[in-house]
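Dear colleague,

As promised, here are the two records you asked about, laid out in our usual form so they can be pasted straight into your sheet.

NAME FIELD: protein one
SEQUENCE, THEN STRUCTURE:
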Amino acid sequence: MDHSTSRMITRVKAVYLYIREKGTVSTREIADEFGTTDRTIQRDLTILTHNGLVKSPIRGKWKTTAKPVKISS
């Protein structure tokens, strides 16, 4: 796995854990927390949504789903 893919996977995990810890958060809050652009975070959220791990019941606000998750290091 190349370095950029590894970095992206690490960030996606961190984004998921951040949402799980904070409850409902906005895309902007996540981008600010991770020091990246809204677009980068949106790509990460697309991955998490595709895997059924997060949802956006209110446009631009994100929360985790009830899907069980095993986080590996």
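NAME FIELD: protein two
SEQUENCE, THEN STRUCTURE:
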Amino acid sequence: MTEDRITNLEIKISFTEDLIEQLNQTVYKQQQQIEFLYRELKSIKEQAGSSDQSGARNLKDEIPPHY
């Protein structure tokens, strides 16, 4: 009886370790994606900031959207 309980506990621990490893991999991949998106957003903000500071405007930007 005790040996069966120990075997069942070992099985549960094994599955738990596998699940934890999968969750760790998921969190790691999500962190990589967050960092990539952060860099992309920062780049876009810099591009938008530099175009605003250039002072040159396109006439298309001045036309109201209903034309």
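A couple of things worth noting about protein two: The helical segments are 2-53, 59-62. Residues 2-53 form the longest helix (52 residues).

Best,
R.
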